[in-house]
Amino acid sequence: MAKWGQGDPRWIVEQRADATNVNNWHWTERDASNWSMDKLKELLLAVKVENEEGSCEVTEVSKLEGEASINNRKGKLIFFYEWNIILNWTGTAKSGVKYKGQVEIPNLSDENDASEVEICASLLKDEPHTQLLVFMKKEGVKRIRAAVATYITSLKTEFAQGMILPTVNGEPKEQDAEPVPKHQPQKVQTSNFPIQPHTSGVKIHTCKITLKDVFLTSPEELYRVFTAQELVQAFTHSPAVIDASKGGRFQLLNGSVSGEFLELDPEKQIVMKWRFKSWPSEHHATISLTFIDKNGETELKLEGKSIPAKEEERTREGWQRYYFDAIKQTFGYGARLF
């Protein structure tokens, strides 16, 4: 028999407030079905898109069948969800004529990324054809896909809090999907923009970077992706804080990126102070994003000034991968690269 204080740490319970499920060794499960139903309804009923033809909005969640749960085994979170969803939507033409239709999401599950989920929009039987259906299939479906992505992110962060119990040392065991309590500093995802040691009081050489890309969406929609908190959380797959106002601050990718909005010209330009957490203390670059309408597509030009010279390639690759490519993958805005 092991002496007191020795032996397999999975079974050491003295110093544990609850003296149960030591070091998260035992399987625990939390039902997320009711929470998911409320969250999905909240997100989907907020979907509304408008253009010169009129507007389309989700008016009812007529079918929401399925279940969701989170399992904790050996300190690792396993997420399960499977939903069959039917939405009712209404299109209103500029003339005032209304059209009714449905959106079917036959298999929203953990087996597929949000960008892969099948979403089918249609008009109800006997409804006359309208260009609003084309608009709903394109822009409405993109907005619904963003809502789905936000649900998945919220399930893995907001609802999952507290699933990882303290270990014998009082700290949660590290694992891939660990939520971050609101009252504690958020951990940085090491896979996103790896963190380097801080330096301060040292003169650094800086440089400029430029990027240009094309997105299959309007400047209005792409601008929202950069300024709406729920959309930022969707494409970064992590919690974010976004105050989209002049002087407003932002933080994303679990704290590895932060800054302040300097100028906001809707659908045209965003200028911000922007930094990696790993950069010398208080050093910010100036990032300008310019949105150019290209007949249904948007050309996005990025110019970055005062980038630490040693961070030039990492910053350029980070913007391409964790912003541009992630946005295309999440919302289906894929297009050719220059």
UniProtKB/TrEMBL annotation:
Domain Activator of Hsp90 ATPase AHSA1-like N-terminal per the UniProt entry, residue ranges: 29-161
Q: Which GO terms describe its biological process?
A: protein folding
Give the Gene3D superfamilies listed for this entry.
Answer: 3.30.530.20, Activator of Hsp90 ATPase Aha1, N-terminal domain (3.15.10.20)
Q: Report the principal subcellular site.
A: cytoplasm
An example Gene Ontology CC term for this record? endoplasmic reticulum
Q: Where is the composition biased (Polar residues)?
A: 186-195
Ranges for region Disordered: 170-195
The protein's GO terms of the molecular function aspect are:
ATPase activator activity; Hsp90 protein binding; protein-folding chaperone binding
One Pfam family it belongs to: AHSA1
Show the ranges annotated as biased composition (Basic and acidic residues).
Answer: 171-181
Which keywords belong to this entry?
Acetylation, Chaperone, Cytoplasm, Endoplasmic reticulum, Isopeptide bond, Phosphoprotein, Stress response, Ubl conjugation
Concerning InterPro entries, the annotation shows: Aha1, AHSA1-like_N, ASHA1/2-like_C, START-like_dom_sf
| Top-rank taxon, per record | Eukaryota
Where it sits in the cell: the answer is: Cytoplasm, Cytosol; Endoplasmic reticulum
Please explain the role this protein plays, according to its UniProt record.
Answer: Acts as a co-chaperone of HSP90AA1. Activates the ATPase activity of HSP90AA1 leading to increase in its chaperone activity. Competes with the inhibitory co-chaperone FNIP1 for binding to HSP90AA1, thereby providing a reciprocal regulatory mechanism for chaperoning of client proteins. Competes with the inhibitory co-chaperone TSC1 for binding to HSP90AA1, thereby providing a reciprocal regulatory mechanism for chaperoning of client proteins.
Entry-linked PANTHER family: ACTIVATOR OF 90 KDA HEAT SHOCK PROTEIN ATPASE HOMOLOG 1, HEAT SHOCK PROTEIN 90 HSP90 CO-CHAPERONE AHA-1
Which family does this protein fall into? Belongs to the AHA1 family.
Spell out the protein name for this chain: Activator of 90 kDa heat shock protein ATPase homolog 1
